[in-house]
């Protein structure tokens, strides 16, 4: 029987590993440490040591002449191993089996995971207000209203003390990969981003308007933006049948930032039509799963933050999404949510400008597949 033992994560945190566990995930940096290969190597070493001990007992029970006469080649190898230094002994061990793929491991958080990014760009001329608060509000909503375990939510903001939780380009990429890693049927995955969005020239020819949409990490000036092609490849393409991903993007130029194939264009009277996005040269759908993205505005528009909702600076998209789900009752449809979000933002903007302009930016819904938004229930 193997007892509980300590394992150190690469971030420096010590964790207790239960007997028979194949992998353990750090609650601080969410790095997964494989344990199968370590256990297999330990068992192999223990078998060698046991064999050496048995050989010693036999040698003590036999005269030296008999022992030398009866010694077979395998026993001679064992005796040589007994005299070898520990480094040579470990070098003679058979190589451990390759570690199991993460896809074969059960999720340590059940079937719900979330990544929340809030970037205020403190100290920059283009700093924002309220993006970190948006991420914190979304975390409270997911835990209190949607039943997400708080341990299953990875927060990336400038307030985090762990370097791996600062919303840099490298950390955001890593967090996105963690979100979909090993996804399976009945998984509910959630991605939220509040910060700057942007457009840049499309170089692979898959955009109708010739522009890629992008998210701006904290270090985007030196490391670059995360463009929609990469977001789609990391978060959308790996989704297997039965897995579901929802995203809420509170940023400018965010309409098709997930590069999903279909955009729901809704009129003020509630009628809607699905528009096919892209030129069809590259597949932008899932691996059988479902992906939905609520964006703050169209690709060529700016999102807003407004104190009209809470009395303090907050992302209009983040607040309207949370409020729409809370007030819509049990199992609202996507159409009900989209209408509620558009109405609340439209009302807030009209109060700020004292006008009822048709040009105000409103949330958009994109999807991996076309569907009836008034018949399909929204479920996280």
UniProtKB/TrEMBL annotation:
Q: Which residues form the Peptidase C14 caspase domain?
A: 112-349
Pfam families membership? Peptidase_C14
- Annotated InterPro entries: Metacaspase, Pept_C14_caspase
UniProt superkingdom: Eukaryota
Report the PANTHER family cross-referenced here: METACASPASE-4, PEPTIDASE C14 CASPASE DOMAIN-CONTAINING PROTEIN
User: Member of which family?
Assistant: Belongs to the peptidase C14B family.
This chain's protein is named Peptidase C14 caspase domain-containing protein
Taxonomic lineage: Eukaryota, Viridiplantae, Streptophyta, Embryophyta, Tracheophyta
């Amino acid at each position: 029987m193997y007892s509980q033992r300590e394992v150190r994560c690469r971030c420096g945190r010590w964790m207790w590993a239960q007997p028979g566990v194949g992998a353990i995930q750090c609650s601080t940096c969410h790095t997964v440490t494989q344990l199968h290969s370590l256990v297999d190597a330990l068992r192999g070493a223990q078998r060698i040591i046991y064999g050496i001990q048995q050989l010693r007992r036999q040698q003590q029970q036999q005269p030296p002449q008999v022992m030398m006469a009866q010694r077979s080649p395998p026993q001679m190898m064992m005796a040589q191993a007994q005299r070898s230094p520990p480094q040579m002994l470990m070098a003679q061990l058979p190589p451990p089996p390759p570690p199991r793929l993460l896809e074969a491991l059960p999720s340590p958080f059940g079937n719900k995971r979330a990544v929340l990014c809030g970037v205020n760009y403190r100290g920059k001329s283009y700093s924002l207000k309220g993006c970190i608060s948006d991420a914190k509000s979304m975390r409270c909503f997911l835990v209190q209203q949607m039943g997400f375990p708080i341990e299953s939510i990875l927060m990336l903001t400038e307030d985090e003390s762990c370097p791996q939780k600062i919303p840099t380009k490298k950390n955001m990429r890593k967090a996105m990969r963690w979100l979909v890693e090993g996804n399976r049927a009945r998984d509910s995955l959630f991605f939220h981003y509040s910060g700057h969005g942007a457009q840049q020239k499309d170089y692979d020819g898959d955009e109708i308007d010739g522009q890629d949409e992008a998210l701006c990490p904290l270090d985007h000036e030196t490391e670059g933006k995360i463009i929609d092609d990469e977001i789609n490849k990391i978060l959308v393409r790996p989704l297997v049948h039965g897995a579901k991903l929802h995203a809420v993007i509170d940023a400018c130029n965010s309409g098709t930032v997930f590069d999903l194939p279909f955009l729901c264009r809704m009129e003020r009277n509630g009628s809607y039509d699905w528009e096919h996005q892209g030129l069809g040269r590259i597949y932008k759908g899932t691996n059988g799963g479902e992906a939905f993205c609520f964006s703050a505005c169209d690709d060529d528009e700016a999102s807003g933050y407004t104190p009209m909702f809470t009395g303090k600076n907050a992302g209009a998209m983040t607040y309207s999404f949370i409020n729409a789900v809370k007030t819509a009752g049990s199992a609202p449809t996507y159409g009900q949510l989209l209408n509620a979000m558009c109405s609340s933002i439209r009302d807030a903007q009209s109060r700020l400008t004292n006008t009822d302009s048709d040009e105000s930016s409103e949330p958009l819904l994109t999807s991996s597949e076309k569907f009836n938004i008034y018949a399909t229930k929204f479920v996280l």
